[in-house]
Amino acid sequence: MKRLFVDTAGWMAMADARDPMHVSFRTARDQWLEAGGMLVVSNYVVDETLTLIRMRLGLNAAEQWWDQVSESPRCRTEWVTPDRAERAVRWFFRWNDQSFSFTDCTSFVLMKELQIEKALTADHHFLTAGFEIFPSFRGAQ
Fold first, then answer.
1. Could you tell me the end-to-end alpha-carbon distance of the chain, in angstroms, rounded to an integer?
2. I want to staple 53 with a disulfide (CB 3.0 to 4.6 A). Which of 47, 62, 95, 118 is the partner?
């Protein structure tokens, strides 16, 4: 089964109808799932996403998002274990010429370990780290 990592930027675009990438990201997600794919998220990305949705869209929206993601058999949460966190710290400091967040680095570690090549995101850091952005678009920031 093909897996697609979903970053906070991807979840936010899908959750917020006012986001300029809302329709294209939801369409991309739906196409991925219809083709039999699986979505993967980390507990760190869940943390960021729940917090951002609550701050931007309210607690009810955060709860609705959580219910949908946590109950979906097509979305798997990977946990950042102590070993994974240690590898992310090394990644964080090794790429000292980049502005990767620590959460980005945990995502990169998971994607490398699980051999996931694509991320549903608008975050150009994933491109810099050697991954593909899905859907492909020119506006990655």
1. 29
2. 62
How many Å separate Cα 130 from the centre of its chain? 15
| Residue 64 dihedral angles phi and psi, to the nearest 5° | -60, -45
For residue 108, tell me if it sits in a domain. no
Let me know if residue 100 belongs to a domain.
Answer: no
For residue 5, what are its two tokens? Answer: 């990592």
In the block, residue with structure tokens 């850091």:
125
CATH number of domain containing 13:
3.40.50.1010
Domain span holding position 75? 3-79+115-134
User: Rounded to 5 degrees, what angle do the CA atoms 114, 120, 121 make?
Assistant: 120
pLDDT of 99-120, one tens digit each? Answer: 999 999 999 999 999 999 999 9
The pLDDT of residue 141: 42
Q: What are phi and psi of 128, to 5 degrees?
A: -60, -35
Helix (H, G, I), strand (E, B) or coil at 20: coil
Q: Of 4, 15, 93, 91, which Cα lies nearest the Cα of 56?
A: 15
Which two three-digit tokens encode residue 41?
């998220």
